[in-house]
Amino acid sequence: MTKNIIKKKSPGGRILIHKVKKRSQKMYCRICGTLLHRKAKKTTKSRKHATRPLGGDVCHACLKTTIQSVEI
User: Fold this and answer.
1) Burial 44-58 (b: 16+ CB within 10 A, else e)
2) Would the pTM of this model clear 0.90, i.e. be above it?
3) 45 within 8 A of 54, measured Cβ to Cβ
4) Does residue 10 lie within any of the structural domains?
5) pLDDT recorded at residue 67
6) Per-residue model confidence as pLDDT tens digits over 34-51
7) Domain count of the chain?
8) Is 62 part of a structural domain of the chain?
9) Is residue 31 part of a domain?
10) In this structure, is residue 52 part of a structural domain?
């Protein structure tokens, strides 16, 4: 039996197979590794995305330090 298949018994006595979707993972900052305050990454592609540079990949503190170091 694999991890993503569950066998259920219906009231009529038939055995049904249900496939379980993968759970999404928590998002972490690429630089410092802190937990990002946003919803977990979806397995499907979505049109919604962060408008700031490196949005969703880097926390606000690391983004601020990288922008300041580039400007100098």
Assistant:
1) eeeeeeeeeeeeeeb
2) no
3) no
4) no
5) 86
6) 988 776 655 556 666 667
7) 1
8) yes
9) yes
10) yes
